Amino acid sequence: MRIGIIGCGNIAGTLASTMVKMGDGIQLMAAASRDIAKAEEFASRFGIEKAYGSYEELYQDEDIDLVYIAVPHSHHKKEMIDAINHGKAVLCEKAFCVNAAEAEEVFALAKEKRVFVAEAIWTRYMPSRKRIDEIISSGQIGRVVSISANLGYKIFQKQRISDPKLAGGALLDVGVYPLNFAMMFAHSDLASITGLANIKDGVDSRNSISLLFKDGSMASIYSDTEMISDRKGIIYGTEGTIVIENINNPEKLTVYNGDRNPVELSSETFEHEINGYEYEIRECAECLEKGLLEPPSMPWAETVRVLKVTDSLRSIWGIKLASEITV
Questions:
Q1: Reported pTM
Q2: Could you tell me the fold of the domain covering 2-123?
Q3: What is the DSSP string of 240-270?
Q4: Integer Rg of the chain from CA
Q5: Is the CATH number of domain 127-271 3.20.20.370?
Q6: How far apart, in whole angstroms, are the C-alpha atoms of residue 101 and residue 83?
Q7: Helix%, strand%, coil% for the chain, nearest 5
Q8: Can you give the residue ranges of every domain in the chain?
Q9: Are 88 and 67 in contact (CB under 8 A)?
C-alpha cells in the first residue's frame, strides 16, 4: 500500500514515523501541504520521496493508493471528496467530519465510486479492544450496567481547538475517545442522550455527557481541553468490574470481582509493536487487498452513529461549527 499524507502537522508526523517503521509492504510515498516549504521539510524528516505544495498534486499522483488526511476537522469532507473523486482510498483522522450529514455524503460517494474509506480512531483497531470484549463476553463481570470514561488535555490554546471555524472544541477532539469507548463496550443501541458543556469562544472547552442504552445500561463521559484528567475507563458489571488505564491508548487492564470490597482477579498490560497506530494502517492495507470499502473495526454505520450523538449534543448546547456557521 503506497501512502500519501496531506497536512504536515504533529499527528501526521506521528503516523509518518509509524509508516516508515512498518515494512509489510507499507510505503510512505508523498506528503502535501499548502506550504511547499513545510511539505519539503516534512518529506526530508521522514525520508519521503515526493513533496507537494498542494493537495491536488498528491491526488493526481498515480503512485498513491491511499491518502491519509490529517487536516483540521473543518476540511475533512472536502479533502475526502476530492481524494475519492481521484480514485484514492482514504484514511481520515477523527473526528471524521463536522457532522453526520457530511459523513453520509462522503460514504455515499465512496460507495458510488467503489473507493475504500476509513476513520482513523485508533482505539477501535487496537488489540486491547478485542481483549476487553472477550472478558465482557465471557460473563466474568456479569451484565454490563454502567460505563465511565474521561479524557482531558491542556490544549485549548491551540487554534484547531479554540476556533469554531475549524470545528474546534473538546467534544470533536478529545471527547470522541470516551464516547467511542462507551459505544464500543455497551453493546446496545442508544435510547437517550443528555449533556452539559462550558461554552468558551463559541466551542465547548469541557463537557459532561450521560448516555442511556436500550438494555438499561448507562455511560458517564467527561472530556476537557483545559486540564489533564486521569484518562481512566471503568466498565461496571453485575458481577465485577474492568478498569482500563488510559482510554486513549489502553496501557493496563484490571478485573475485580463484585464484592463490596473488590478483590483483584487479574491484571494485564498492553504493549504495541510500534506505537499503536500500526493497527489501523495494517487494517487499511488488508481491506484494499480484499477489495473492501470499509474497515471491519470501524464500519461506516458506526462512524455515522457516533457523529449523530455529537450532533445531538451540539444541538443541546447551541454550538455550530465550520460550514454550519452562517452570518
A1: 0.96
A2: Rossmann fold (3.40.50)
A3: EEEEEE-TTS--EEEEEESSSS--EEEEEE-
A4: 20
A5: no
A6: 18
A7: 40, 30, 35
A8: 2-123, 127-271
A9: yes
User: pLDDT tens digit string along 14-44?
Assistant: 999 999 999 889 999 999 999 999 999 999 9
Q: Mean of the per-residue pLDDT values for the chain? A: 97
Hey, what long-range contacts does 279-283 have (CB within 8 A, 24 or more apart)?
279/122, 279/125, 279/126, 279/127, 280/91, 280/118, 280/120, 280/121, 280/122, 280/124, 280/125, 281/1, 281/3, 281/15, 281/18, 281/19, 281/22, 281/26, 281/91, 282/22, 282/24, 282/26, 283/118, 283/125
50-74 confidence digits (pLDDT tens): 999 999 999 999 999 999 999 999 9
CA nearest neighbour of 174 among 148, 196, 206, 218? 206
Comparing 107-121, 199-213, 313-327, which segment has the lowest mean pLDDT?
313-327
User: Does the pLDDT value for residue 138 go beyond 60?
Assistant: yes
Q: Flag whether pLDDT at 190 surpasses 60.
A: yes
In terms of Cα–Cα distance, which of 179, 184, 186 is closest to 218? 186
Return the exposure string of 66-81: e unless at least 16 CB atoms fall within 10 Å of the residue's CB, then b. bbbbbbbbbbbbebbb
Report angle CA 277, 300, 252 to the nearest 5 degrees: 35
Whole-angstrom Cα distance, residue 82 to residue 54?
A: 12
